[in-house]
Amino acid sequence: METFPKEIELRNGQASLHLMSEHDTTDMLAFAKTLPAHDLMFLRRDILQPHVIESWVRKIESGKNITVIATVDKEIIGYGTLSRGEIDWSRHVAELRIMVGPNHRETGVGRIIVRELFRIALDKSIEKIYARMTLDQTGARKLFQELGFHPEALLENEVKDREGKVHDVLSMAVDVETFHARRDSYGLTR
Ligand SMILES: CC(C)(COP(=O)(O)OP(=O)(O)OC[C@H]1O[C@@H](n2cnc3c(N)ncnc32)[C@H](O)[C@@H]1OP(=O)(O)O)[C@@H](O)C(=O)NCCC(=O)NCCS
To answer: How many domains does the chain have?
Structure first.
């Protein structure tokens, strides 16, 4: 955890990573407004609402969530969150949510954020990580597949967009140890 903030190299230049805190509330709202409506659907909450971001910060402060933010010139270009649920018996499980701004995709930032989250997961004794996405989020599916995630459940008609249309959600999961076994190719160390 002491490795933040840090500079990272993307395909199109440099960016910085830091852990989210209350100081990021306004910038996170500005970032949310740059996101296509469709991409917001796999998130559990509507991050266009200021009170949702405030409650996210409270979860970070209580240790339930950890969010890594990527910035360029202090502007948020993406983030990834590890979120532990409320279930006592599933305290070894966390959900991973990742979002990169449309103008910054395919620059390598998504993979770097995921790598950092796995480093944190190892540190926090999280054993299983899952991620949810709509079926057409091909970038996300490819990225997670490559990292060893496998489809675990298809949740039919799980989300309803702002126009009222329903979409299926795919839940993919991986054991942190499986990911760890591939760590050499992702530059991970315990
Ligand atoms: C998924 C997402 C986070 C990927 O971020 P990114 O910064 O674009 O990803 P990277 O540049 O690090 O790419 C990593 C790998 O993902 C895959 N990938 C990313 N975008 C892709 C696309 N549009 N089509 C196919 N594969 C893609 C590739 O395998 C890529 O590796 P490569 O560049 O060596 O080919 C980003 O597309 C996003 O925010 N999507 C919307 C939100 C979402 O679907 N979140 C996932 C649900 S948890």
So the answer is: 1
| 1 part of a folded domain | no
Mind listing the pLDDT tens digit for each residue in 15-72? 999 999 999 999 999 999 999 988 887 777 889 999 999 999 999 999 999 999 999 9
Is 70 exceeded by the pLDDT of residue 185? no
The helix-helix angle for 138-146 and 109-123 (nearest 10°) equals 50
CATH number at residue 123: 3.40.630.30
Q: From the CA of 134, how far away is ligand 1's center (Å)? A: 14
In tens, the pLDDT along 132-170 reads 998 888 999 999 998 889 999 999 999 888 888 999 999
Quote the tokens at residue 12. Answer: 């199109």
* Residue of minimum CA distance from atom 28 in ligand 1: 143
Do 133 and 168 contact (CB within 8 A), yes or no? Answer: no
Q: Domain for residue 126, yes or no?
A: yes
Range of the domain at 160: 6-186
Contact 67, 59 (CB under 8 A): no
Report whether 53 contacts 25 (CB < 8 A). yes
Distance 105 CA to ligand 1 centre (A): 7
Q: Who contacts 115 (Cβ-Cβ below 8 Å, separation ≥6)?
A: 186, 187, 188
Q: Give residue 3's pLDDT.
A: 86
